[in-house]
Amino acid sequence: MNINATEVVKLPETVDTTKGTLYLPPRTLHYGLYSVTVIYNVSRTNEDGVLVWETITGESGVNVGKSDLVVVAVKGGAPRIRRGRPTLQTLNLNPGHFYFDPDYPEIPLVSFTWQCREEGEELPSEGEKVTSDPPTSREEYGTGQGREGGGCWGQGPGMMSNASPNFSISVNLFRTPYITYKIEVATRSKDGRTSGTGVEVEVVEGDPPTLTSACSPPWICRQVEGAQLVNPQKLILESGCVVEAGEEAVGEDGCGKVPLNVAGVAGSLIQPLDVMDVAIGLNQRKLALLDDFWVKFGSQFRTFDVQVTATRPGETSEGLALQRIRINEAPVGGTCTAEVMQDIHKDEEEEGSFEVEVRVGREEPPTLIVTALTDTVILNCTDWEDPEGFEIPKYSFFATTERGEKVTLTFSSKVILPYANLTLWAGVSDQLGAETLYMTAVVIPLLPSQELFKEYQTRKTLLKAVSARDQTRVDMLLRNNKANDEEEEDESSATQEKNKDMLSSVDKFSITSMDEVLQVNNILGSIADPLPKESQEGAVAALKTLAVAADSTAPLAQQKDFAAGALATTASLLTGVNKNVKKGNGTSEKRAEKMVAMARRRLRRSIWNQTEAEEEEEVEEEYLPSEEDEDANKKVESLLGVVGSAQGSLLASAVVGEEPARVEAGGKVNMAVGFFDAGELDGRVVGVGGATYVFPSYCSIVSEPDDCLTNKSITVGIQMAKWSNQVHGYGGGRESLGDDSSTVQLSLVDAASHPLPVHNATRDFIIHIPRDEGSSVEPEVVEPRVSNTMPLSIHKVEVPLPNLGVSVLVSPSNQSDASQWVLAWSSSELNGSLEHTENLLYFNELNYHPDTGFYELFLDSETIGEATGTYSIGIGHYNMTEAVQEEHPCFEDPPPGTFIYSFATGFNESYSFSSFVSSCLFFNKETLSWSSEGCRVVGANTTITTCACNHLTSFGSGFFVAPNAIDFSYVFANAGFLDNLTIYLTLIISLALYFIGLVYARIKDRRDVEKVGVIPLADNEPSDQYLYVLIVHTGHIPKSKVQFLIAGDWEESDVRTLNEAKTSRPLLTRGSVDHYLMATSRPLGPLHYLRIWHDNGGKGRSSSWFLGYMVVRDIQTGEQFQFICNQWLAVEEGDGLIDRLVAVAGEEQLRDLSHVFTHSVDKSMADDHLWFSVFLRPPRSRFTRVQRLSSCMALLYLSMLVNAMFYQKVPEDGAGGGLRLGPVSISPQALGIGFISNLIVFPPSFAIVFFFRKSRPRKVKESRLQIALRKQRESAVVVEVSQAVWPSSPDVESEGSGNFSYSLDPKSTTLNSTVSLKELIAQQEKDKDKNKVGRRRKLSLPWWFVLVAWFLCAVSIGTAVFFLWAYGIQFGNAKVTKWLTALLSSIVSSVLFTQPVKIYLGDETTN
């Protein structure tokens, strides 16, 4: 309630009044004093043991005051700039554009007062008004026009006449160069608030570039008089160059390189500072003053000048933009305390009655003895002030654990604590976020007694805290439960249900500040695992909501805290998602059978001595993702989107050359982000969480020539993450990963944080991935067994997949004799002979590790290739025997000193042996499977696997998405009917229904022919020659005789009967529109009313009749009159009348929305809705039902084809880019697919319908109205359906059957002339031809375009059916069933909902 106005203020619907914290967004309330009332509904047990509800209210006052205006003159708020003369440079000051009103930003400032002076001059006193306006040209100087004084324009310092929001002037008009001028402006808002700003302009000779300087992002600074107020923490200043009209751009930024210089300001003394070791980016567009800068210089200076300078090529004058920054001091002078509140009675805390027992120790720091779960701690802060004079907006409380973990507490005064050694802190923050941390106590925890703990459980404290929206207490209780359960992992159904119930309350907690977001994220992380499968999607959605609520303008430390918390929660959710999908997939018999079949195929391919028939290549099935895979992938991609947004927020605070910002989340995941110069990327090593990336050159990454960076400066951002467990623990090839395999991720972005897709780089990324501690195999001690035929000790190594790496480690027991040891390996089995020992190596040719004493053989991915199966490793010993000189008569003896090498058949020395395989896989998000494509293993040991990959991920944010490919060799080889029953039945049934529908449509078309035409009324007199067409819109079939009469200005008709005409078709049927021809002896003149009735002669409801409206058209004059009824003529319906008098509809009635809209919708549904019109088609339309049905089928099949082409091609959450409209996000892939889909479906379907509608008939048929006229006057001249011209005269009378006489004078009662009807018709034809010249003819096409439409229709249906058949076989029965289910729901909703709503809205908009 507004106390000043004594009125109740209704809060907007967007304000949530049901949570524990009431958050009013900026500008919710106007200025004034308000009373805020809170109402609690509390349940408690009364003295009789009955549960009752009580209502408790509380009230507080809120004063909404006025905010300060923020006004700057130039972009970025630089207080000092430099401009040149006598060039064409212009000084533009725009406070009317660069101001900010926090209270009413939509209302412009109303007053601007400008003044100008030289630096060092004083402005006139307030009572002395001096006007100093700039000259129109430099010729005014020195001409005795009063411009010999000081100031900017030679008239002394003073006020200018300019009162506009902006000030623009040629720099050449300033009186003297090499002088600094100060231009100031005072502003005022509509509600009386004032503010001002000024800028110092150095005027020099020459053409310096126009530079800008600003804080990045803008909200880290606050504009105060003459400076930017900043917190003493990492600060980024971004410079730029403005290319004014007529200036020439230099380089990519307009000014080439932009160096920055930093100087400290102490009073009036400017002292240059050496910031090389405490700043980054001195020669870049972004300069970062690091935390060490403030440590080094903050005690000496409170204000600093940071200036950017640049020079154009060939120029000597430097451009300048100076940014003055002033240190914002944190709040001072106050104290904070922590006390323990003890309950008197167990329910009195709810009732608000308690005693306070102070247990704060006297030693520093103070100690606080707290009983976990039961004691309530009171936190309080007093007497704090902001040195800058602003109000203190925020007090926060938190605790730190022994491990350094930060635990957010509350903004209120009461908290409970878990059983843990904690240090309690208070944070007092000013409006810019400068925070003073105050240690309030060191907590010594006590375990509650058994009685207290039972009481705690009985009171259901956690449930009450949830009900009371006390999120701090919930957080503390969950932390305590988590700490007690750390030693054992509880995945019982009871725990899952408890977490599920808690999850349902998460959305009720307040997340209006960053502290609350951190707190609720911790609650979510505490219950994220275990969760039932059906609740995981809700947890993912809750985390996404927190990511959206996270304040991107919060201090960097808080953003890092949220990133760490979000990563930890994501890791917990990923664990639960992957565990559930493994359980689901593990019970699938088809999956198990498929894995066995794949193993058999690998085994057959690994044996070299197969017969030719056995070596015939089998076609390996493409992995078909299960429903569990797809469900898990949807959740994982949403979670990775949260990680991406956290990375993007941190990246916004990074600068080129700075070490990447790193975040660790409890050992589960590590993240690093940073910017690098593209020219320095080659060979750069970046690590995170033990994983290391070695980058190739930027040019090789983007597949461009090596000199692609010549004369260019490009910034590249990296986003890295290393997960201790699997991220995608599902999909094809999942069996090749260990359950505890770690996952590393890397993505590149440009300077604006837009993703850079990396595919097929010309040089590889080298990735060092840490191996799991438990993955290495302990060496075994081997006592060799050899024989004369096989002198090697054989070991077997299974290689299950292509492109793996194999590591073999051997350590002889006698290292001194290792030079005579050998190792042989083969990709087949060594069974009793050395036949396949094609690779023989001495130990001194292997890699030796002196720290372990092992010799290593490593076979990389290129060596292994596609050869999978069992590899054999043989270890042996070579004997070296000197050749004996035998002096054989037939053979020449070897030279002396020749040695003969042979395998030692008596080899028996022990050795240690171990082997393992390594893989480098990435998750292909298109196929939901693990793949090694583009990656290879280039090194491995017991701790590290080294991979070389030419891409970062298998996907990128492309606009166009390639459709599902068709392997026709597979399709034709697997086209069996029973194996693909679903697609065959779908096509057969749909085509059969189409042909049945054609028969129905043809029958209805023939009946429609009978419905068209104009029916002469049965009681027309052959001698009557004045003709009217009656168009009757009815809604019920009457058996009664319907009669009417029509009255006009000049005459009224006789009583006429509607439904006695001689015709074979039924008249006045439900929803019909019947045309009648009425003849009268003379014109009736302008019509006034219609009287219509029936004799109620039918039986039952057949006696009743509903009349919509009747249109009466004068054939001779073309005039049209409408009689709108929309009522029953029935004794048992409505008002019971069967005789109605209906006045002619006036302009207002004709425009009545209900009438026009109903008529328009009925017509649109019957004619424009392609599917409905097959059944409701207007009989007079040339677009037949057969043509409409064929058009529908062509559209249906084309839509099915497009849907199949892009089925499962769009991820749920795009990696980046695209459109975001509030909560709705549209990925680039979806945009591309939508464009291509419309390109395929729209042109042919539109052409088919257009050609059918617009094709003229081959033979022009005689007008049905002429036929009716001929029946009416068999011997008379046929009157065309035209707009004949008849005089508006009452003096018209009949004179025989062939002539009409009429008076040209409406006042005359005598006949002035007589005209033959034939002559009149001839004259009408001439007038009609004249009207056609000025009237736009409707578009029509030659008759043969209907054949073109039929051809397009047949081609569309035939082509679509063929490719649908191919896609159906390619997909397989299971996938086709899912595709058809999704497609059917889409089609049904489009036909029954989307199209009608579109027609409804279109008609309503038109009307």
UniProtKB/TrEMBL annotation:
Taxonomy, superkingdom: Eukaryota
Listed InterPro entries: GAIN_B, GAIN_dom_sf, GPS, PC1, PKD/REJ-like, PLAT/LH2_dom, PLAT/LH2_dom_sf, Polycystin
Gene3D superfamilies (alphabetical): 2.60.220.50, PLAT/LH2 domain
Molecular function, one GO term: calcium channel activity
TM annotation in the entry: 981-1001, 1189-1210, 1230-1252, 1341-1367, 1379-1401
Domain (PLAT): residue spans on this chain: 1024-1143
One GO cellular component term: membrane
Family assignment from sequence similarity: Belongs to the polycystin family.
Protein name: Polycystic kidney disease protein 1-like 2
Origin species: Petrolisthes manimaculis
